[in-house]
Write a structure and sequence with these properties.
GNAT_dom; acyltransferase; alpha+beta; globular; 5 helices; Acyl_CoA_acyltransferase
Length: 162
């Protein structure tokens, strides 16, 4: 069953709510408490980040409140990085992630970009592949030393990307 939601710009006063949403979403994958503690700073959303000139934060909101969010950062004239995409665990698999991802693709196109880079949680790699992502390498986690995370790219000029 698909959940209905609207997408809007995140409000800086929602920073703490977005941080907690990201933590709940990450924990969905069954990570240990020590792992989650190590990730907390990397998952933190601040008012400064929400007010950044090079970042764009959008939330999915439903009748029950915030259902998910994403953050896009401009790397160059045509390349952007998806810095975050998190969904409330209760609605994972119900279309919110796809709604956010499609919105992010449209936004990047509107901003003149044609490429999105994604550092993925290994558990979300399939989601990003389904969205048109192609693996091109890995990057060490900022939170867990020696943990390699998949790097994907979405070519928005490709015909197979919605």
């Amino acid at each position: 069953m698909t959940v209905r939601a609207t997408i809007r710009v995140a409000n800086p006063v929602e920073a703490d709510k977005l941080t907690e949403l990201a933590i709940r979403s990450k924990a969905y994958w069954g990570y240990s408490q020590s792992f989650m503690r190590a990730c907390r700073n990397e998952l933190a959303v601040t008012e400064q980040l929400l007010n950044s000139a090079i970042r764009h934060y959008y939330v999915a909101e439903g009748d029950s409140g915030l259902l998910g969010y994403y953050a896009i950062a401009k790397l160059s004239e045509r390349e952007f990085e998806l810095e975050a995409l998190f969904v409330e665990p209760a609605v994972i698999g119900k279309g919110i992630g796809k709604l956010l991802m499609n919105h992010a693709k449209r936004l990047v196109r509107q901003l003149g970009g044609d490429k999105i880079t994604i550092q993925s949680d290994p558990n979300a790699e399939g989601f990003y592949r389904a969205a048109g992502g192609k693996i091109f390498g890995s990057r060490e986690s900022q939170s867990i030393p020696q943990r390699q995370l998949p790097l994907l790219t979405i070519d928005l000029m490709s015909n197979d990307v919605a």
